[in-house]
Design goal:
Helix content: 10-25%
Low-confidence stretches: 1-16
Number of domains: 2
Mean pLDDT: 87
Distance between the termini: 62 Å
Structural class: mainly beta
CATH architecture of the largest domain: Sandwich
CATH topology of the largest domain: Jelly Rolls
Order of helices and strands: HEEHEEEEEEEEEEEHEE
Strand content: 35-45%
CATH class of the largest domain: Mainly Beta
Number of helices: 3
Strand order of the largest sheet: 3-4-11-6-9
């Protein structure tokens, strides 16, 4: 017997069970569905609404799924980042709500890549990238779980001369906790956050206020115009 469970889910999930409406002999009955090997489906819109308070700068990320082979994060704007992330694995972006920009350090310089609502973006391994998320936006990012000993990078570049100021290489066990704390530590360390080439300080950025996409991408932070 085959039933469309996605269409017939009837009530919210409680204690690992869900009541499902199933047609039996021409009538609908409710049966309790309990999964022992898998997690029950998640209503993404409801999950985002329930966890909205956790989407706060500087990163605004929270695990939707934290598995052994990969993890899925929901990330809400605004963020307040001036770092570039680089890993030895790939990253998949899906923009659920609103438009954002990912700045990548391409072979011939910086590129501002708009990701519109409903679009996806794939970042290969070894590409430094800096997501820029304005208020009200929501995206999903899927990454491979890095095994112990496989490091990744959080890089900061000078806004004046564009030279590399600091490259933190680390073995990241928890990207949600580590990223925000590592940023705060960098911004608070005057010696670490000062460019060795021109002396410019890489300070803590304000949250993004809005992004203009035409005639060219322009990222406006709170307090700027």
């Amino acid at each position: 017997m085959s039933f469309n469970l996605h269409r017939n889910i009837a009530e919210s999930f409680k204690s690992g069970r869900v009541r499902v409406r199933m047609p039996v002999y021409g009538r609908s009955v409710f049966m309790a569905l309990e999964l022992n090997t898998c997690r029950l489906p998640v209503n993404l819109a409801s999950w985002i609404a329930e966890n909205a308070a956790d989407f706060k700068p500087p990163v605004g990320n929270k695990y939707l799924y934290d598995g052994e082979d990969f993890f899925v994060m929901v990330i809400g704007g605004p963020n307040a980042r001036n770092d570039f992330h680089m890993t030895n694995s790939e990253e998949y972006f899906f923009q659920l709500k609103g438009d954002m920009v990912v700045i990548i350090r391409d072979d011939d310089g910086l590129k501002h890549v708009p990701i519109r609502e409903g679009e996806t973006f794939f970042i290969p391994s070894g590409v430094p990238h800096a997501p820029q998320r304005p208020p009200g936006t929501v995206g999903v990012v899927v990454e491979r779980r890095r095994p112990p000993g496989e490091t990744e990078h959080q890089q900061f570049y000078c806004p004046n001369c564009h030279e590399l100021v600091h490259d933190q290489e680390f073995d990241c066990e928890d990207i949600v906790d580590h990223f925000a704390s590592a940023m705060e530590a960098f911004w608070a360390d005057e010696a670490l956050s000062t460019c060795g080439s021109c002396g410019t300080r890489v300070g803590k950025p304000a949250p993004i206020k809005r992004i203009e996409f035409e005639p060219e991408v322009r990222i406006i932070r709170e307090g700027e115009e």
